[in-house]
């Protein structure tokens, strides 16, 4: 078993799921560029998906009473279609092209957050489209969170239920993605074995994220997060 891969996996999972626990999304956007230093894109997606399964079980249990179940139900079919399409692309496309696409996607998201002055208002059909696109990017990169953010914000305005509903949406996507990745051959037993070794690091990230969440300065944290995402996007492109 490659020690270098284990070290990079531990670093990626710690920072990714520390952020995920704090704000309810963006774990993949942080973890994926770090993982790509050591493994190929399909392997990185497999590892992240496994830890999203662990994270979802813990966070959904903790936040169940704050989750908007109607939104989860409404996104279920569109997410299923999107995830399946995304995994087909992941399985049969060239990793270099996909990595460049991921870098562009991250930079576009950062630009949207920084420049967007008005909140995006989605109609019913547009909301369905965002559900498919969110599922697609979740299947390809495990990074559909930003698209789901735009969709969920349409119906949930307060911070606490918004964070909880985002956790629920990503849990739904994970439940779809894990079987699809296994059937396609992207996720295998070796990924599971290595993930179990790193599990204590994941638990530490969850613990710290949960403890720090009530005390954090949200504005400053988002600025640091956007800066790190910008660096990640540029690194993937160049």
TrEMBL record:
Its main location: membrane. The lineage of its organism: Bacteria, Pseudomonadati, Bacteroidota, Flavobacteriia, Flavobacteriales. Signal peptide: none annotated. PANTHER family: MEMBRANE TRANSPORTER PROTEIN, TRANSMEMBRANE PROTEIN YFCA. It comes from the Bacteria. The chain crosses the membrane at residues 7-38, 73-90, 96-115, 127-150, 162-187, 194-213. GO terms for cellular component: plasma membrane. Pfam families: TauE (PF01925). Keywords: Cell membrane, Membrane, Transmembrane, Transmembrane helix, Transport. This is Probable membrane transporter protein. Belongs to the 4-toluene sulfonate uptake permease (TSUP) (TC 2.A.102) family. It is found in: Cell membrane. It is a multi-pass membrane protein.
């Amino acid at each position: 078993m490659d020690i270098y891969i284990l070290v990079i996996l531990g670093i990626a999972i710690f920072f990714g799921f520390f952020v995920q626990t704090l704000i309810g999304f963006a774990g993949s956007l942080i973890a994926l560029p770090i993982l790509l230093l050591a493994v190929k894109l399909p392997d990185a997606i497999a590892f992240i998906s496994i830890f999203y399964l662990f994270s979802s079980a813990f966070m959904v249990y903790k936040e169940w009473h704050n989750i908007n179940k109607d939104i989860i139900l409404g996104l279920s079919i569109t997410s299923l279609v999107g995830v399946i399409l995304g995994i087909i692309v992941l399985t049969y496309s060239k990793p270099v092209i996909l990595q460049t696409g991921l870098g562009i996607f991250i930079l576009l998201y950062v630009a949207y957050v920084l420049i967007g002055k008005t909140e995006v208002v989605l109609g019913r059909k547009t909301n369905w489209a965002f559900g498919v696109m969110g599922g697609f990017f979740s299947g390809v990169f495990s990074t559909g969170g930003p698209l789901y953010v735009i969709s969920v914000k349409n119906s949930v305005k307060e911070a606490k239920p918004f964070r909880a509903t985002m956790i629920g949406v990503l849990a739904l996507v994970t439940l779809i993605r894990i079987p699809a990745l296994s059937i396609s051959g992207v996720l295998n037993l070796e990924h599971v074995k290595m993930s179990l070794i790193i599990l204590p690091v994941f638990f530490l990230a969850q613990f710290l994220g949960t403890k720090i969440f009530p005390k954090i300065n949200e504005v400053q944290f988002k600025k640091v997060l956007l800066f790190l995402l910008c660096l990640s996007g540029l690194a993937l492109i160049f």
